[in-house]
Amino acid sequence: GKGLLITTEARPNAQNHITDMDETIDRLQQAQQQQEELTDLARQYSAHLSQQTPNAVHQTLKQDNSAIQGTPSHEPTVFPELNEPHLVLSGAAGIAFSTPQSTHISSGEHMALTSGKDTSIAVGKSLFVTVKEGLSVFVHKLGIRLVAASGHVTIEAQNDAMLLEAAKDFNITSTADTIHITAKNKVLVNGGGSFTEWSANGIKSGTKGTWTEHAAAHTSLGPLSRPV
């Protein structure tokens, strides 16, 4: 082989050759399969911005796993594993990294992280995520929850549209103050075909059904507007 294997997998009585790593290869192949299965699930819900990016990652994982597994040889002195100069770390009970200073992980191409159960990230100060092209997040079962105990929650689409969609009820609530809905050109509210349209030209409303109003009094005053 051309690479290096560092492992804590037991080989009693020095069984098998020095680069034997069946357990490690099995885990890597299971991780590759999990990546592909969850990506296919996300595709069913149109969750990915690009269909090509996950494919490129999966292809790289497949190629790397194949190179690590190697090609069987009939030569007794030629070990099949590590066709390419990979560094393979395998911990039978786990792998721990620790430093009192900083850690930098760099990949010139793709990076894939796979966990069979939970993944936890704990940050003492701030978490910065900077993406040059697209970001997609997909959850299959239990939903997404974002909570800010203090400070604003700001979501912006600075150069394009923002789309918010729900299959069932869509609730907007201010528990202690006011809800402001502002548009520079027009606000259109449409419910079942009945609508109200607000713009600088005026207010237009329409319905094919019955319009019912309840008020203690109705008052019409002169023109009034607020700056946008």
Automatic annotation (TrEMBL):
Keyword Secreted recorded: no
Coiled-coil ranges per UniProt: 14-51
InterPro entries named in the record: T6SS_Rhs_Vgr_dom, VgrG2_DUF2345
Any Pfam family matching the protein: T6SS_Vgr
Keywords associated with the record: Coiled coil
First and last residue of the signal peptide: none
UniProt KW Cell cycle keyword: no
Putative type VI secretion system Rhs element associated Vgr domain boundaries: 1-42
DUF2345 domain span: 78-223
Protein name: DUF2345 domain-containing protein
